[in-house]
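Duplicate of #3305? Posting structure anyway:
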């Protein structure tokens, strides 16, 4: 992708001069990989966040959307279960899933570490 800018300088003594400056912008493949990884981890965090909210409002598990969110997010929450001594804090019908909160923090840290490592190998841009 190229952009062309034209600058015109007008002075009283000399005639108007025109400078043409051309810059070429190319997409960096590593930046694209970073964006894809950020999107994937963003979707994982969204699923876990929805799980936490749905458990707090005691959403009905018979609903297909709620069941889909619970089942899909369980894959990402399961590795973090048992880290804390308590699994859930319950008050009546609602529950605060502590494993999901730990998983949310864990996946956020994992995603940030992966993106930071990828940025180490990104080529430097010319100024």
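Output from current build:
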């Amino acid at each position: 992708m190229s952009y062309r800018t034209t600058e015109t300088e007008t002075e009283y003594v000399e005639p108007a001069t025109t400078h043409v400056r051309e810059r070429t912008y190319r997409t960096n493949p590593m930046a694209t990989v970073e964006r894809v990884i950020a999107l994937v981890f963003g979707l994982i965090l969204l699923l876990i966040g929805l799980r936490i909210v749905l458990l707090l409002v005691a959403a009905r598990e018979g609903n297909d959307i709620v069941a889909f969110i619970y089942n899909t997010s369980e894959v990402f929450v399961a590795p973090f279960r048992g880290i804390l001594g308590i699994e859930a804090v319950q008050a009546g019908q609602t529950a605060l899933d502590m494993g999901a909160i730990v998983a949310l923090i864990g996946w956020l840290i994992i995603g940030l570490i992966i993106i930071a490592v990828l940025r180490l190998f990104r080529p430097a841009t010319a100024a």
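Confirmed duplicate; merging threads. The longest helix spans residues 29-56. The chain has one domain: 28-120.
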